[in-house]
Amino acid sequence: MADSKVDTLSRLAQWRIDNFAAYTYKRSDPFKIGIWNWHLSIEKSRYLSIRLFPEPSRLSKEQLPPPLARFMLRVTTTGTNRRPHISPVYERLLRTSDDFVWPIDSCLQGRFIIDVEFLDLKIYTPNGGEGKSVWPNDMILQSLATQSTLRCLSRMLDESIHADVTINTADGSVQAHRAILSATSPVFHSMFLHDLREKESSIIDIEDMSTESCAALLSYLYGTIKQEDFWKHRLALLGAANKYDIVDLKNACEESLLEDINSGNVLERLQEAWLYQLNKLKKGCLMYLFDFGKIYDVREEINNFFRQADRDLMLEMFQEVLTAWKPA
Fold first, then answer.
1. pTM for the full model?
2. Which InterPro entries does UniProt cross-reference here (predicted)?
């Protein structure tokens, strides 16, 4: 159908019907208002019925919450002086085409226009709350502001714009900004707050990290780290997060190390979990070894592990054995 397109501007949708005489039903193409795609449809029987509903495939595919819409409609014939049909203001939860029908006690002929003015659109909350309006769209604004900030921080780091701190690593040095370091780590903040050597010299020695790992740490603090760099330097980042009290980075490393436990790394992960007091990672490693019976896969490595392991860790492993293998 050539006249199935709906024009939109701001919160207004307008559907021009050029010739409905030959049809009893017509549905519009999808149009976007807010975060949803919509359809209008008209049906001719005794009354002219107009329906407004969100696009079902979009709701199911993207798992968008259903809209709670506040709107009004207007139907205007063209080429005559007839008064328009104007609906009341409706507020409806719209899921399917059966949720809203506006019958008009008239059978319009020729050309006419259907206007839908959306007064508000809210994201429906099934727990009985009011719902959150999508206007103004705080999510988009926040996303744009975040992207802009991250671009600026990335330039500051990559181009050393007004850098005022030098970090000496095990094999080189990198430049940074004391304000960023202080804002992201209470340890760095303390260095520059008190009369310590770092405050006077603007030099920090991190000799237990390589330059590459330290660059990954800085990119995390500046919010620009890439997934592959985080994955590659997880253990070094974990040590730095623990040393400089960067809690969110420590948690991120723990979650990441939980994702790929296997027979080749489980003992190393268990040692790291014990060293840095990562209870979730420790529990995951112990479950892997004993509940899933993978202890047999590391028989050759276990003797060397026991020679180096902390006594309390060994005791906890022994207790885990008793729990996992207790008689039924």
1. 0.62
2. AtSIBP1-like, BTB/POZ_dom, SKP1/BTB/POZ_sf
Indicate if 58 and 20 belong to the same structural domain: yes
Residue 165 corresponds to which tokens in the numbers above? Answer: 């701190």
SS3 category, 81: coil
Residue for token pair 């017509």: 26
Residue 320 belongs to a domain: yes
In 3D space, the residue among 13, 223, 262, 3 whose CA is nearest the CA of residue 121 turns out to be 13
Among residues 297, 303, 299, 252, the alpha carbon closest in space to that of 278 is found at 252
Residues 126-167: tens digit of each pLDDT: 776 678 888 876 666 677 788 889 999 999 999 999 999 999
Q: Is 172 part of a structural domain of the chain?
A: yes
What is the rounded CA–CA span in Å between residue 37 and residue 42? 17
pLDDT digits (tens, 9 = 90+) for 196-212: 788 889 999 999 999 99
Residues 6 or more apart whose Cβ sits within 8 Å of residue 270: 281, 282, 285, 286, 289, 313
CATH of the domain at 209: 3.30.710.10
Side chain identity at 21, as an amino acid letter?
A: A
Both tokens of 39, joined, read 């359809």
At which residue do the structure tokens 């002929």 appear?
109
Phi, psi for 94 (deg, rounded to 5): -110, 120
Which candidate, 212, 151, 205, 153, places its Cα nearest to that of 177? 153
Q: Is residue 253 part of a domain?
A: no
Indicate the number of domains in the chain: 3
